[in-house]
Amino acid sequence: MKKKLLDIKNLKVNIEDQEILKGIDLEINPGEIHVIMGPNGGGKSTLAYTLMGHPRYEVTEGQILFDGEEIKDLSPDKRAKKGVFLSFQYPEEIPGVTVEEFLRTSKTAVSGEQQKLIPFKKLLKSKMEELEMKDEYASRYLNLGFSGGEKKKNEILQMSILEPKLSILDETDSGLDVDAIRIVAEDVNRLQNGNRSVLVITHYNKLLDYLKPDFVHILLDGKIVKSGGLELAEEIDKYGYEGIKAKFSRN
Amino acid sequence: MKWNRIGLESLTFPEPKKYTKEYLSNLEITNINLDEINELSTTKLEDFMPKEAKGLGKDFTSYVEEYYNSGISLHVPRNMKVEKPIILDFLMDDENPMVIDRNILVLEPNSEITVVINYKTKTQGHCFHNGLTKVYAKENSLVNIIKIQNLNDKSHNFDSNLAIIEGEGNINWVSIELGGNITGSNFTTILNGDASQGNLSSIYLGDGDRKLDLGYSMIHKGRKSNSNIETKGVLMDDSKKVFRGNLIFKKGARTSKGVEGEYVILLDPAVKSDSIPGLFCEEDDVSGEHAASAGQIDKDKLFYLMSRGLSEREAKKLIIQAAFRPVVDKIPSEELRNSINTEIERRIINE
């Protein structure tokens, strides 16, 4: 039996006393790609932030086991060190810190090994080439003045450098053009080949043209209402969320 | 003497002592000879400073004029551009616990110079600094003055800086306030000539029970004169700070422009931060802008950085160093820039 990487049971989460997640169960094994789809307001981003440990999201019930260990009370930096990564839907701008400096600091913190200047420069350069990013981004201030698409690519660059065990991509495909989506998908596939897991959170299924997810889950009103394969995404494409909602409200 | 702004009940100046250590290490690399430097040593403030340039006040400036134990007087000849910065390093210890420096800089037209003055302590005992720096920058000259203060937590630090700038002349002040128990720091720039320009960039770090009184004034007299004050600070523990930034437009300063901004990050609830901007106009056709913000570090920014493996303190430190960076980068010495960054890091991480 494969050892589970992520094991979520009956997860309930409040934001300011309002229940957003109403009992989520989700298991992810090493090397698997999972996709969570659902309409806006269903709790997709809440799940992403909760897994990373944003202080505003309060876990009221349930468990989040990562590598067999409960992480729900850990601060975000400790989760990052264990191998959790979140690609933000709206990455923050940090003026005064360059992409290269930030990534070197981050890689040092996450890996626990001091990153030497020259080897790190090489690593960064090769990863940027893979993502078809221009060299100049390395010396620009983190996300400052980046377009929406550039910010998303920069998130994927960070993922690719930090090599997390679990990458959560929160609406990474929104704001990206078709070429960029293909490049991002290639990077995700590379991670999967390295037996790392990915949780893709998306509203559309643009990214799914290039990914082969093992599971697709539909998140509606704080609960996963259906899990299946890629055919679920096709169903959503066909009937829309309204159709799916109607189906479930009948039950 | 009573100092209400920072809640000081009484302040008495200590008995003046000598400062016998070398503080001018790199003079030989400049091409200014000592005769020229000494030429002005008898010049008094009143000889070229108008009455409104008071610095921290007469008690402070006349103490320096009477008892100064160090400092330089530089007379930069017409058209001379001194390329390498002149660096003064004051390192107070138990034998030399007082620096009373008086510095006079006169720039003839079209000349340039950069002066860095670094005040530090090498003892845990009480040290005292009271300084007075006077600058007279004539037409089309350029002067950069960088002051870095990192005295120990028991020391008193007072500094008055006065400048008068003639037509198309430029002054760039940089002030880095990291240490001392009490700091009173004043920078007054008189933009006397047409199209003269004054810039002041400063950062401060308040921790422990440090008290800072920062007073910056730009006095516009010439037409089309320009000024810019940008201050960034961090307050934590029980530190206190008063910031007064004055933009003063005198009659005749038509089409002049002044901008000031003060941005402070508050890390602890017990800190006290007062910002008192002042705008005084005797002329209609001028523009004065003022911006200020005081607040905690944005929680979403912290979360973003922490999600990349940085601890809360590391994340705060990164944001603070990033905010200070544009000012620190103005210091023309990598060694000094590094030592300032290391010091900030040490203070924030060992909070």
Describe this structure in words.
The complex is a heterodimer of chains A (251) and B (351). Chain A is an alpha/beta fold. Chain A has one domain: Rossmann fold (3-Layer(aba) Sandwich), CATH 3.40.50. Chain A has 7 helices and 12 strands. Chain A has helices at 44-52, 76-82, 99-111, 117-130, 148-162, 178-193, 230-250; strands at 6-15, 18-28, 33-37, 57-66, 69-70, 84-87, 94-98, 141-142, 166-170, 197-202, 215-220, 223-228. Chain A has a 6-stranded mixed β-sheet, with helices on both faces. In chain A, strand 11 and strand 12 form a beta hairpin. The model of chain A has no long low-confidence stretch (mean pLDDT 91). Chain B is of the alpha/beta class. Chain B is globular, with a radius of gyration of 20 Å. In chain B, strands 1, 3, 4, 6, 8, 10, 12, 14 and 16 form a 9-stranded parallel β-sheet that branches. Chain B has an 8-stranded parallel β-sheet with strand order 2-5-7-9-11-13-15-17, covered by helices on one side. Chain B has one domain (4-297). Chain B contains 6 helices and 17 strands. At the A-B interface, helix 2, strand 7 and helix 3 of A face helix 4 and helix 5 of B.
Indicate the topology:
The complex is a heterodimer of chains A (251) and B (351).
Chain A: E1 6-15, E2 18-28, E3 33-37, H1 44-52, E4 57-66, E5 69-70, H2 76-82, E6 84-87, E7 94-98, H3 99-111, H4 117-130, E8 141-142, H5 148-162, E9 166-170, H6 178-193, E10 197-202, E11 215-220, E12 223-228, H7 230-250
Parallel strand pairs in A: 3-10, 3-11, 6-9, 9-10
Antiparallel strand pairs in A: 1-2, 1-4, 4-5, 7-8, 11-12
Chain B: H1 34-39, H2 45-48, H3 58-67, E1 73-76, E2 86-92, E3 98-99, E4 102-107, E5 112-121, E6 128-137, E7 142-150, E8 156-165, E9 170-177, E10 182-191, E11 197-206, E12 211-220, E13 226-235, E14 240-249, E15 257-266, E16 272-281, E17 287-295, H4 299-306, H5 312-328, H6 334-349
Parallel strand pairs in B: 1-4, 2-5, 3-6, 4-6, 5-7, 6-8, 7-9, 8-10, 9-11, 10-12, 11-13, 12-14, 13-15, 14-16, 15-17
